[in-house]
Design a protein that fits this description.
- The protein has helices at 6-9, 36-46, 64-77, 88-97, 109-114; strands spanning 11-18, 21-30, 52-62, 81-84, 105-106.
- It is an alpha/beta fold and 122 residues long.
- A 5-stranded mixed beta sheet has the order 1-2-3-4-5.
- Helix 2 packs parallel to helix 3.
- The radius of gyration is 14 Å and the shape is globular.
């Protein structure tokens, strides 16, 4: 078995707008060496007011760097941050670390887009 090549380990990010929300699709490996473009995309999204759907269906590997980044983003974005379709690896990582109880997780992008912001209670 050969080790992963650098292009296989790179983090890919694409962004689009749909239904009044920003959707960021992330793929590849999210670790200390590759997560900076995602950090910048999240920072840019935090400056807006629209919901942000982070599609993690194509992430094959993530480490504590990505967890830390997502937890900080959840503080910055609040209920505007919606995590869609985490890959099996990422979902397991969320479960093992308890992050699945902190972040708003959805089975897919459509479900995340359909989710409204929580209503404020008086």
């Amino acid at each position: 078995m050969r080790p992963p090549q650098p292009s296989e380990r790179a983090l890919s990010i694409s962004e689009r707008t749909e239904s009044g929300a920003t959707i960021i699709v992330v793929g590849g490996e999210a670790d200390l060496q590759s997560v900076e473009p995602l950090r910048l995309a999240l920072r840019h999204a935090a400056a807006g007011a629209e919901p942000l759907v982070l599609d993690l269906s194509e992430v094959g590997f993530a480490d504590s760097t990505m967890l830390n980044l997502l937890l900080h983003a959840s503080v910055d974005l609040g209920p505007r941050l919606r995590i869609a379709a985490p890959s099996p690896f990422v979902r397991r990582l969320f479960e093992l670390t308890g992050v699945d109880g902190v972040l708003a997780l959805y089975d897919g992008v459509a479900e995340a887009l359909a989710a409204g912001a929580p209503e404020a209670s008086d």
